[in-house]
Amino acid sequence: MRLHNSYSGINEEFKPIEGNKIKMYVCGPTVYDYAHLGHARCYITWDVLYRYLKFRGYDVTYCRNVTDVDDKILKKAQNEGKTPEEISQYWYKQFSNSMNALNNLSPDIEPFATKTIGEMIAMVKDLINKGYAYEVNGDVYFRVKKFPPYGYLSKQPIDKLESGARIEIGEQKEDPLDFALWKKDEKFGYKSPWGIGRPGWHIECSAMSRKFLGKTIDIHAGGADLIFPHHENEIAQSECANGCKFVNFWLHNGFVTINKEKMSKSLGNFLTIDELLKKYDSNTIRFFILTNHYRMPVEFSDEALSSAQAGVKRLLNAKPSKINEDFDITSSEEYKHFIDAMDDDLNTSKALAVLFELANKANKDDKNAYTVLYKLGCVLGFTFEKPALTEEQTAEAVKHVNSKLLKEFGSLNEIIDFRKKARQNGDWETADKIRIALDEVNIILKDSKDGTSWEIK
Length: 457
Fold this sequence. Notes:
The chain is of the alpha/beta class. Helices cover 44% and strands 15% of the residues. The chain folds into three domains: 2-257, Rossmann fold (3-Layer(aba) Sandwich); 280-379, Four Helix Bundle (Hemerythrin (Met), subunit A) (Up-down Bundle), CATH 1.20.120; 391-456, no CATH class.
């Protein structure tokens, strides 16, 4: 298996540090607002990596942190008259709901920054004692020039970084390049050897990674926007504090763009996961993301999502057969092609092409094709159950059905049951009205001798 290591800039053969055990860390959310499509891309990408590594027989420990102490959280708490804890807990629940709705597996370990303050303080003390950090009036800074490899991950020479570095008002750094490890904050802070304060953002991940995975880990992943300064700073402080290599493989996913601009909250051009799920199901969003190579930027558009929706339909409409648990899928030619694609730096686009081959074979009554399709599709995180209607689709369906009796209905199955009774009673006019009304909201009914089935157009 070869993965693109952002640190070296090339595809490298992946080998775990210890046997078949893999320690994997992914930078998690700062919980103060809704998760958006950019987050969906990041966490679906690493969910697929996690699933695939486990599928290949590795013993993976996946750690994804939660940043619940941050300037944005504090600002929102002040604006809404709430405590930072109330803000972070509420938005963490929303984030978790969004991840579940996207069918992302939960990480094995999900540490909160506020529960790891002691480990952060200990790491900052290590850096001060070794001469890599210094305290000034309650703030603690890292001496960047004491770490010569600084800038290697982001491919930015130190002189280029120096030319753009500035000291903000109130900062008392020795050098403009130095970054904060600890910030004085007497209102929202924690006790420390340097007074009341709170951790800098970068030290959080270094401390949590060290506590839960150890000093050197196999994989550290996240969005490309984190390469500098976050991951660059993580490397510097971790390797100086621990005295050893921090990460073997750095992996980064590309941006989601709208009109060629990165989707972000600061630009105000983001679509929340909740908004997307009102219009598209999780399989469609996942398909849209996996159609593109994870390192490449993805341009969002309704046309692209509609195309993904059609692709998902082709897979899910493959002629189903009973899953044959006794069939050895490794004997399948498509299995081998799937492995080749995924081993080539997670080439999910090629892997999807393999799923389409299997869907075609299943439709031609290849008795084992559906079993392979199902199992490989699950590796990519697809669900093969018939998709449920979103709340918005159900509301639209009910609204379009022209019958007072149906205004009380809250599900498609209830509407279909009512139509069934109308047909049994010979009330063909009502039955046709319901069918036409549902067709207007892209819900197709199919009547057969076995009953009525439905699908989303």
